[in-house]
Amino acid sequence: MQVLVGGIDEAGRGPVIGPMVMAIAVTNDMNRLKAMGIRDSKELSPAGRARLFSILKSTLNYIDYEIVEPRVIDNYVYMNALNILEVEIAIKLINRALNSVSPQVVYIDSPDPRPERYRDMVKRGVVGNVEVVAMNNADKLIPVVSAASIVAKVIRDSIIEELHREYGDFGSGYPSDPRTMAFLRDWVKRHGDLPPIVRRSWSTVRKLLSNSLDRYLS
């Protein structure tokens, strides 16, 4: 009997600009993924990710993803519930996969340092008979999770390219990137507020807006 194994991972949890993307990949041949050189997307160049993504589209049994916009991320961060957001999206992805290809087991890269707690929350929302395995560093350890990480990263990178064309060069979008922070400061100076692609709940952004308001009032 063909055993279908799924993997879930995200891209873009940490940046201050742009969405987060969570993806699920399902395969019936984990060894083939290993032989292809599938590994965590962070260990691959953009060109390497794009090449493997192209192959994965015709190799995997199933691919699906969710794009989570900054305003949605902000709502959960304000509630200190970013992991809950990931739980809810993982449930959506698994339930849709069960309706389509029925994987027997799904591995998830857990954002929670206690993966069993994360697994239990996901399992409560899954409708169907599937084993859910949550692991820290699953994107490095389980090839089908690595495949999901490549899918999520390539989809997110394509969105970021579009945002660059629309808003200008804001760098990587991470708060540690000087270009990103310079872009945000300049945007606030020129427009008095931030564009909708920015996560307002990030501490660096709240501080930037607070400093801008202080200068305006002084």
From TrEMBL:
Residues of the RNase H type-2 domain: 3-214
Family matches, as SUPFAM superfamilies: Ribonuclease H-like
Binding positions for a divalent metal cation per the UniProt entry: D9, E10, D109
EC number: 3.1.26.4
Cofactor section: Mg(2+); Mn(2+)
Xref: HAMAP family: RNase_HII_A (MF_00052_A)
Reactions catalysed: Endonucleolytic cleavage to 5'-phosphomonoester
Binding note for cofactor: Manganese or magnesium. Binds 1 divalent metal ion per monomer in the absence of substrate. May bind a second metal ion after substrate binding.
GO CC terms, sorted: cytoplasm; ribonuclease H2 complex
Gene3D superfamilies in UniProt: Ribonuclease H-like superfamily/Ribonuclease H, Ribonuclease hii. Domain 2
Superkingdom to which the source organism belongs: Archaea
Coiled coil: none
PROSITE patterns registered for this protein in UniProt: RNASE_H_2
Keywords: Cytoplasm, Endonuclease, Hydrolase, Manganese, Metal-binding, Nuclease
GO biological process, one term: mismatch repair
UniProt name for this protein: Ribonuclease HII
Subcellular location: Cytoplasm
Gene: rnhB
Similarity comment: family membership: Belongs to the RNase HII family.
GO function term, MF aspect, one: manganese ion binding
Function: Endonuclease that specifically degrades the RNA of RNA-DNA hybrids.
PANTHER family on file: RIBONUCLEASE, RIBONUCLEASE H2 SUBUNIT A
Predominant location category: cytoplasm
